[in-house]
Amino acid sequence: MKKLMLGNDAFARGLFEAGCTVVSSYPGTPSTEITEAVAKYEEVYAEWAPNEKVALEVALGASIAGARAFCGMKHVGLNVAADPLYTASYTGVNAGLVIAVADDPGMHSSQNEQDSRHHAIASKIPMVEPSDSQECREFVKQAFELSEKYDTPVIVRMSTRVAHSQSGIDLGMRNNIELKPYKKDAGKFVMVPANARKRHYDVEERMQNIKEDYKFNSIFNKVEKKATVAGIITSGIAYQYAKEVFGDEVSFLKLGLVNPLPDQLLIDFASNYDEVYVIEELDGIIEDRCKALGLNVKGKEIFGCIGELSQSIIAEKLKGIVNKVKSFDEDVPVRPPVMCAGCPHRGLFYSLSKIGATVMGDIGCYTLGASAPLNAMDATICMGASISSLHGFNKARGEEAEKKTVAVIGDSTFMHSGMTGLVNIAYNATNSTVIILDNSITGMTGHQQNPTTGYNLKGDVAAKVNLEELCKALGIKRVRVVDPYNMAQTEKAIREELDVKEPSVIISRRPCALLKYVKHAPALKVDNDKCKSCKACLKIGCPAISIRDSKAFIDHTQCVGCGICQEMCKFDAIGGKQ
């Protein structure tokens, strides 16, 4: 049976068919839908963990116990999970362990452009890379076999375009894998130095064995000999782009196993062509390996290492090889990201901007507070960094900074990695003010539950962390809650907490405006007779407000009646119902 599926959905189907029984992940675009999709299969236990490190440790624990397990994350999440990842390479597995890492070339929803193949190489863990939905399903199933055969975790590298594009897949039946016996083996799983030294030899031998076993054509690596004009070595989505451009006019070496790379296959393929091009997104890892083998290939000097590739880019860069390339005359209009109409963060950021606060930001929807017209953010680094960097900033600049500098962090991000930063503030004592933006959901990645919402991944009632009590337990005595729709109250609270000489937390609490259970007030309208065209209402950057015929105009299809614009208007021109 064939079915059209997103790459992430096909990945989840592969997990199901492979007999995976335990899944623990942290949401991160473009990987999120894998775990959401696999959670729909009753045979699979799936959860959201507080962060990627915990998620991978859960999956590794399940593998040691004898169950096939999976952990998914985006590329920056693998940085968080690097600690258990590198040691899991030494311990190996009992049942198969597969890890998905979704890279984001072009940084569509990320703070950096990272090539996760470096983690695979450094941790000495095999990595496979599918190029379409069918391969997502098939490579996942093969990754479990690879994992168990060679006693290793296996990383599957996804990318934004593979994860979020659709193609047909062949559906199969579930392979119900029995729980493997667990046997105590301290030499394998207790990574004290004496055991780890021995296991390192196993890691090196394993990688050599994989390289030898996959040195020729395989389910992962395939040679497509079509012509002698030129040879292209590629992998992942870059293969699809190049294939669309060149079709059968060049020969391809398509790599699915990208760590370890098949040296002999690279040598044999390149020997057939005078011109060999390596097409890969981000860093030149395949290219560097080819050159280390003495092969004359061209790659990054043509394509560069910044941004994602496309059919048009490849066609333009290699137009001398083939000339029949499709072109598109019309450009897609740019659509800059913006906080939604009624977003609870808008009033909070306007208050911070009005105060002139220095704002150490974090990762979430609220990062959009850095954009015009609010311009209310000074730094954004990584998950949880807002609180830690606030402490460092205040320690460096002293009382002057303490009176005007805050950290902003979402409820989900606070649970991910913000708590330890707050402990540090309490323990090492700065007069720092932390604002937790509690919108009752993990908003940025599409409304996933987290430990503060009271529900788990499957929507079942779960333990709910009380943020007020948690902050107090972490050593913060001053904790208060504000409604960001009430900007006067919010501004007053910020000014008061900045003025005190001890650490404090403000919880800005209002559910995300897009949550289905949120009941909105009627849309507001503008009284054109009262409107003075002062444009004060535009200062909050609400997408529902624009200027028409020199007067403010509110789009009733977007407005949720939050009232923020009413607070901005000094002429009482906004009100009523549409």
Task: Please count the beta strands (DSSP E, at least 2 residues each).
Answer: 23
Uncertain segments are none
How are the strands ordered across the major sheet? 3-2-4-5-7-6-12
N- and C-termini, Cα separation: 50 Å
How big a fraction of the residues is strand? Answer: 15-25%
Q: Number of helical segments?
A: 22
Overall 3D shape = globular
How would you describe this structure to a colleague?
By secondary structure, the chain is an alpha/beta fold. 37% of the residues lie in helices and 17% in strands. β21 and β22 form a beta hairpin. It is globular, with a radius of gyration of 26 Å. The relative contact order is 0.08. The model has no long low-confidence stretch (mean pLDDT 94).
Keywords:
22 helices; six-stranded parallel β-sheet; 23 strands; single chain; 578 residues; seven-stranded mixed β-sheet; globular; alpha/beta
Question: What's the structural blueprint in terms of helices and strands?
Answer:
Blueprint: E1 2-6, H1 7-17, E2 22-25, H2 32-38, E3 45-48, H3 52-65, E4 69-74, H4 75-80, H5 82-91, E5 97-103, H6 117-123, E6 127-128, H7 133-150, E7 154-159, H8 160-164, E8 166-170, H9 186-189, H10 193-213, E9 222-224, E10 231-235, H11 236-246, E11 251-255, E12 257-259, H12 263-270, E13 276-279, H13 285-292, H14 300-303, H15 311-317, H16 345-355, E14 358-361, E15 379-380, H17 385-397, H18 399-402, E16 405-410, H19 411-428, E17 433-438, H20 467-473, E18 478-482, H21 487-499, E19 504-509, E20 525-526, E21 545-548, E22 551-554, H22 564-568, E23 574-575
Parallel strand pairs: 2-3, 2-4, 4-5, 5-7, 6-7, 10-11, 10-13, 14-15, 14-16, 16-17, 17-19, 18-19
Antiparallel strand pairs: 1-8, 6-12, 9-11, 20-23, 21-22
Helix pairs in contact: 1-2, 1-7, 3-5, 11-15, 16-21, 17-19
